[in-house]
Queue: 2 jobs
Job 1
Amino acid sequence: MEIFQQLTFLERGIAAGLLIGFISPLIGAFLLVRRMTIISEGLSHVTLTGITAGVLMMQTSAVFAFINPLYTGLLAALAGSLLIEKLRQVYKHFQELAIPIILSAGVGLSAVMISIAETGYTEWYAYLFGSILTVTLSDLLFIFLTGVLSMLIIGFFYKELLSISFDQEFASTSGISVRKINFLFSLLIALVISMSMKVVGILLVGALITLPVAAAILFAKSFRHVLLLGIIFGEAAVLGGIVSSYYLNVATGGMIVVTGIIILIGAAAVKKLLPEGFFSKEETA
Amino acid sequence: MKNSAAPYVLEVKNVSFSYGKQMVLEDINMQVRKGSFLGLVGPNGSGKSTFMKLLLGLLKADKGNIELFGSPVQSFRDWSRIGFVSQKANSFNSGFPATVFEVVAMGLYGKVGLFRFLKKEHKKKIKEAIGQVGMEQYMHKNIGRLSGGQQQRVFIARALVSEPELLILDEPTVGVDADSVRNFYDMLKELNDKKNITLILVTHDIGAMSEYVTDVACLNKCLHFHGNKNDFEVNREEMMTAMYGHNVNVIEHNHSHDHHDHSHDHDDLGGVRS
Ligand SMILES: Nc1ncnc2c1ncn2[C@@H]1O[C@H](COP(=O)(O)OP(=O)(O)O)[C@@H](O)[C@H]1O
Ligand SMILES: [Mg+2]
């Protein structure tokens, strides 16, 4: 990965941010229509558990000294994602229970391990709120790999993911293997959550997944529109956040989310001001 | 009997099913020949939807065998030969950002296969199916913005787009007004006559259906009757008493079609265009 080595730390951060700004709304759109956006909150906290476990392993064993904790974070996110799927089946009539169970388990375990690990506050701060200035070469490589893998999954299984999100029963009778596609979807969520960890941080990951599509759905007629507008809003939030945090000298992760909120409010205002049906061709009575 | 030499598209042998301890279907035997139009009737809670789910492999029978086009349902893979409109098709998330085109396209996804994209010929088929149910002017409209009857047409188009040989409809006319129901049944009859699509129409309302179908099956946990429509008419009172406990004297449908104004544009389900 020659090209990554030539980048300055700021360029690395921007590259990572743009990748995340592109992919988060894609997965966000599917979570939105499945009414599952809250899953990103639960999983981000489980990812923290994986990251703290990774940091601990680095400190205690020479074998793991060179492992980037983002990889252990990804493994934890995948385990959490599958566990949530399982819990949703166990509590069929109380599906939302899965999230607080996983979330509290994740936070509890993380707190215990953080108290054991001898790591300074600033490193945890980077994971909690994100910091593009600390995106290392190895982090960028992780983000690039998980990003490419997510895009391949979405690209190849777009039809199946959409059909299952709309009507699981019909998808099954049209010959789609619901179980396999749902597993891929769990993997996809885990990939996207763990890739965003370094840039926006655990506490803010949900924002990039949710805010752009929340703004997009205000105008979208088709699923395609949600994806396109979501990507535009996602990238705008990332770029706006990076630039403004640079000039204001404040935390980037936070500024990306604040920009996302401003975009959402702006979108809602535009929607309110424009006449009904402005974006569709037909006349309104 | 019509098509008495036609091959079976569906064979059900000694099938039983229960949810936990509650027996819902008991020892069902049934055969459906290609080209027939079967009306499956039974009161609410009689197990009709459950039976359809077994046929579609969504649930697994406790006992017995089900064969679709000659192969056991467990190993059947050719799902594009079967179209399905579920009883709760209309209960989707009405805020879902999908156009009519996108929804109907979902009917082709299984046929197109993994790792493949929709090609020009697929898009043409999608447009044709939308035309078939008379919804072309709504092609790029959001599905959530349509009326219940229009949504139902879209779901029929989604089931038709893969050009199935067998179409299963579970109570498709619930909540649709009586005139529209007739238009809708006319459309089904045309699909059956002109395209030779085998139809299984599930309903708890035996009235309007009975003049369109070729065969009737009466289900209430057990299959009380299965045969052609004429035999059914002969045994009708007996059947109704056995199934419903009393003779639900179904509203006689001998009023003719001529007072019915087909040119009127209802918000309805009717009208095949080909
Ligand atoms: N998922 C389920 N779990 C448990 N019982 C069910 C379930 N679905 C249906 N039943 C029961 O099975 C019986 C048959 O239901 P169903 O097949 O939906 O009947 P119908 O479609 O004829 O109205 C009913 O008594 C119903 O309460
Ligand atoms: Mg039913």
Note: The two ends of chain A are 58 Å apart (CA to CA).
Job 2
Amino acid sequence: MDKPSHLSVIVDLSPTQWAFCAQSTAPPGLPLQTFLSQLLAFLNAHIACKDENTLAVFGAFPGQSVMLYSSTGEAMTSTTEATDPNTYRPFKTLDSTVMSSIAERFNSYDVTEEEEPIGLVGCLTKALCYINRTISVVSASAQGTEGATRSIDPRILVLSVSPDQSSTYIPIMNSIFSAQKLKVTIDVCKVFGADNVFLQQAAHLTGGAYVQIERTDALLQYMMMSFLPPPAIRQLISVPTQDRVDFRAACFCHKRIVEIGFVCSVCLSIFCQPVPVCSTCRTKFPIKTLQRLNASRPLATTPSTPGTPRPLTQKNGAALPRPG
Amino acid sequence: MPSIVCSAQASYKKLPGLLELTDTHLQWTKTGDQSPVVKFPYAEAAALSRSKAGAEQVRLKIGLVSNEAGHNFTFTSPQAVALAERDKFEAELTTIIARNRAPPPQAQFPAVATSKARQVATPAPVTNGSAAGTPMRPPAPHARPSQSRAVSVASESRASDTPVGDSPTTDFRLRKKVLVSTPELAQLHRELVMGGHITENEFWEGREHLLLAQAAAESQKRGKPGQLVDPRPQSVDGEVKIIITPQLVHDIFEEFPVVAKAYSENVPEKLSEAEFWSRYFQSRLFNAHRASIRSSAAQHVVKDDPILDKYLEKDDDDIEPRRLREERVDTFIDLGATSVDHEETGNERDITMQAGKQRAVLPLIRKFNEHSTRLLDTALGGPSVKRRRLENGEERYAQLDLEDLHDNQSSAGIILDMKDRQRYFDGRANGAEQGDPEGPRVAFREALQQAKASTTGWSANLAQLRIEKKAGDAALISMTQNVQSRLDVKQRKHDIPEALFRQMTTCQTAANEFLRQFWLAIYPPANEFQQLSVATPAQKTAKALKMIAYLSKTHEKVEALVAEAQREQVDPNRIRVAMKPILDAVDKALSFWQFKNADKAPGVR
């Protein structure tokens, strides 16, 4: 661990989902309080590992995404807690900033409104922008010494309890591609709820770990073992991950998750049924091809179970959409 | 009774007999026998070679298309007669071989037909668009491979400039070549087609690209070989032999025009061909034409030869080569033109980089240069082709305008014109946002209350944080197991016994092929242009039915494999896990078929 590492934590704070989680008995759930204390312990551990480690915490609330804490000091709250002689000061600052930001956000909600889906994608993009900014600052200052290798190892950890939102497929895929470019690893910790297809793909494509928690009362054990080691030493300390990845994609027209789709050969956008004109790049497809493809569509009512997951294959022809 | 063109007493494999050339075949009969032991039609003769003139035995070797080694015949008549006979055979066979190598395509079919009179018409089954697959499956499957091989052998003797069309024989040949080059495909083909499950056409239906690639690779012709013509004598049992083929003779004449001149002047008036060659290879002329300057080994062999020594030329080791290179010097890069300008102030003349400091090496270097020039000329089309005169000014500028001097221009690219950006980025799925699965609904307000309550008093909670030992251990163990199993998989050696593994692979590839045929029958064709056979819907359904029948048996096959695994002390679960993907695919196809049929069953509307 000779390179300092940066960790951006994205916490899924959807009240309804946490209520489900707290109430559920099988699989055993976890109340939000316990979760938050374990999370704080983990964050303290990260900044204790190495002095130069940096941390940023983002919260995904219904309809908004907020930066709760950052070690470079962007998200400071107005109130400061009294100094406590029993606690290591950096820990105390971190914990109090995070918790007070969360409380502030919760209080700002108007109860009569409908709950919106959480801003997970917003958090993801903000985290990537933050990382990009800090990386470029560091490399600008350390140009003489470092040379080509980057001095900071960034990674993102997503703690999620909510299910997939198919409308977020496209933005999440775009974030994954930018993470690949920036060489950022995305880890995912699924505390509660069904498997999240898009986050699985995110972990797989960036080389991160996807862990589904079975014993929620030992959440801290999971986090310490799987998510504390920075990417550089993961070759030595193997972290557990889930190998089965569901590679299904969502169609662009209805945002439904599809197994077999039709791909435009110009812009590679995915459709669940053959369209005469591609909606993203406005390429026209010949009628004969459409008729032929319509005849070949899988029958609508066969149950589409994934079976053993396989990647969605895409075929490109010469300006003809073809069944994939 | 076919008429005999020439015949001679000749022995084959040390047995005496009679060698005959009829107007359709070449055959050899052992004395005393009635029917010929060796008999092959004209089309099979591929190569001809003979023993050195002056050698003890007068031999003739004929290489066949199918059999590279061919047959060796030794003429047993007394020497002079044998030589004459051999020459006659040779002349006839050379014309036949030449005809074999470069025939016009149209003339082939009647020739093939007549010479293949004994073989039952095999091109017939390979007609395109054959309706049912059954004509392809003769009742005796073992007879078919031998027939097919014979037809393809005949067609291999054709030149490579036969156009790739729908000609059945070219198809056969291409298929055979593709199968020979990929052994896995050959195995699959052997099992499925020879075993009678799938017809030949069906097998090749999705694989046309392989055939096209093979045809493209074949149509590339080889150019002239780059090596200098240098026949080396091989000493066999003390007797020094050079095998003279017509090709070699042609090459020698092209390389050394002196030899051609000598040949045309001396043969057949003063020397016979055989004598000419034997004397040539022992003469000084040949020694001068060798591609190596080490003459020590050949000293004792070289004899004076009155006729051939007349053609000896002086060694090419003057300052200027004997054949000056005819080259136009480009005025832009003519370095010699400016040397006059720099006489006083220029560099010293270079004395280090002079070719051929050793005079003895010069002839060889010049010979190599001439050979390379000749090669390039034949490949590029002669030195005079490039001298095309354009407008004076333009041409000069064009010579200066090198591409490397242009600036690096990045292309702007085509902007992706997206309409409806909002829909692309935003779009909620209809009804996909149902927030509640099974389970109790929680109102937002209560949930928010709970959440707010959790955030108060957090420091006390943090101080009291405890992880139960059992829970922690359980978590640790499960994670360790996860890592361990992955490590295990990486390290595990392949220890399934070979036979079982092969059975598994064949089962999988066969099932894959059936699946491919099934889906091909169901879905419309992928590409409208490339199709091997156009089948009517009825045929397609029939094919689909057949495939379904095969696919239903796959489960039993896998169970049989698992049972065998148990017998061989291999963990049966591994087999099951390995075969699971193919079983899933088979199940999917089966359910699709059932669904489709169940749909149609209750009355067609």
Note: DSSP finds 21 helices and nine strands in chain B.
